[in-house]
Amino acid sequence: MEFPRLRPRRLRQKESIRRLVRETRLSVDDLIYPIFVRHGENIVEEVPSMPGVFRYSVDKVVDAVKEVRDLGIPAIILFGIPEHKDEVGSDTWSHEGIIQRALRKIKKEVPDIYLITDVCFCEYTTHGHCGVLKGDTVENDLTLENLKKQALSHVENGADMLAPSGMMDGMVQAIRSALDSAGYYHVPIMAYSAKFASSFYGPFREVAESAPAFGDRRSYQMDPSNPREALKEVLLDVKEGADIVMVKPALAYLDIIAKVKEATLLPVCAYNVSGEYAMIKAGGRLGWIDEQKVMVETLISIKRAGADMIITYFAKDLAKLINSGALPL
Ligand code: PBG
C-alpha cells in the first residue's frame, strides 16, 4: 500500500492524536541539577556566562537545594571551589573541604535530595589538571590513590553516589574497591565514561576556576573523533563495576549516546554541559532564537538519542515548564 491510501499526516492533525503517538517525553524524573559551592560566607553570585546559574557559599546552598527539591527534581551533582588549591588537590579529601562541608549541611537540612558528587581534582589543584603531575603529565596510578581518598571522604560525609570525571584509567575499579573494602558496597558509581576533550566546557571552567594552567586535557579526555574508543571506555567501566555510564558533552555527541545505549544494559546519563547551556541562553537573549523552545527541543533530542537521565543547568527551567503543564510547547 502506498500514497494516496497511506498518509502519515493523519496522525498529526491535532494535539490529542499527536499526544497518543508521541515517542519521547521529558519528565522531571529525568533531571539532575549541577550546583556549585564555593568558599566564603553569604555569597550567591551569578555566573556571567551562564545566566541563571549561581555559585553559593555553604551557608547559602541549602535554600538553593530546597528549591530544586521543591520542583520535584530527584538529584543534584555538587562541584566545589575551594579556598586553597595545592599541587595534589588535598582539599578533596579533607574533612573541612568545601564539598565535605556542603555535603554535611545539605544531608542534614535537605535529606530527601539525592546527593551526587563530581569526583575529580581540576578545581582543587594549582595547575588545574585532573590529578597528580609528574613533569607535565598527569600520573595515572598516583592519581588513583588520591581518588580513593576523595571518594571515601565524600561518602563518609553524606554522598549518595559518586561520579568520577577525571578519565583516569582504572578509576572506577579503584573507587569501587576502596568503597567495598570500607563497607560502602551499596554506594553506586556513575562513571563519566566517554568524556571528550571539548571546548563546550568553557563556561564551566570559568565558574569552577578549573582551566588548566598549561596545556590541555587531551592526554586523558577523549578525542571527539572517536566513537569506537568511546564504546571501549564504556565497556571497560562496565567491567570495572560502574552502575551508570555517562556521555559528555551531550549535544554534539548524540550519536555516541545512541551507540552507548545499544552497547550496555546500564542506565545511560548524558551531560548537557555549560557551553551548550550558554549558547542557548545567549541566542535567546539576543532575540535570535526562542530560548524555551530550543531548550525543550535540545533536551528531547538527548533523551531520544537514548539518555535515561540528563545532567543539565536547564533542570529548574524545564521542571517549572513541566510542572505548569506547559509541555509540549
Ligand atoms: C571536571 C569536570 C568538568 C566538567 C564537569 N566535570 C570540566 C572539565 O573537564 O574541564 C564540565 C561541565 C560543564 O562544562 O558543564 N571536574
Low-confidence stretches: none
How many E strands?
A: 12
Radius of gyration, rounded? 20 Å
Q: What is the straight-line distance between the termini?
A: 34 Å
- The proportion of strand residues reads 15-25%
Mean pLDDT: 97
Q: Total helix count?
A: 11
Global geometry: globular
Distinct small-molecule ligands in the complex: ligand PBG
Main sheet attributes: strand count, strand direction, barrel closure: 10 strands, mixed
Q: What letter string, H or E per element, gives the SSE order?
A: HEEEHEHEEEHEHEHHEHEHHEH
Short description:
This protein has about 325 residues and is α/β, with parallel strands linked by helices.
Write out key terms for the chains shown:
alpha/beta; ten-stranded mixed β-sheet; 11 helices; binds ligand PBG; 329 residues; two-stranded antiparallel sheet; single chain
Describe the structure.
A hairpin with a 2-residue loop joins strand 2 and strand 3. Helix content is 38%, strand content 19%. It has helices spanning 15-21, 58-70, 98-109, 140-156, 171-181, 202-207, 227-240, 254-263, 274-285, 291-305, 315-323; strands spanning 31-38, 44-47, 50-57, 75-81, 114-119, 133-134, 137-138, 161-164, 190-195, 244-248, 268-272, 309-312. The longest helix is centred in the middle third of the chain and has 17 residues, at 140-156. The two termini are 34 Å apart. The protein is globular. The strands form 2 sheets. Strands 1, 2, 3, 4, 5, 8, 9, 10, 11 and 12 form a 10-stranded mixed β-sheet that branches. Helix 2 (58-70) crosses helix 3, helix 7 packs across helix 8 (254-263) and helix 8 packs parallel to helix 10 (291-305). The protein is an alpha/beta fold. It contains 11 helices and 12 strands. The structure holds ligand PBG. Residues 118, 120, 122, 165, 201, 204-205, 210, 273-274 line the site of ligand PBG.
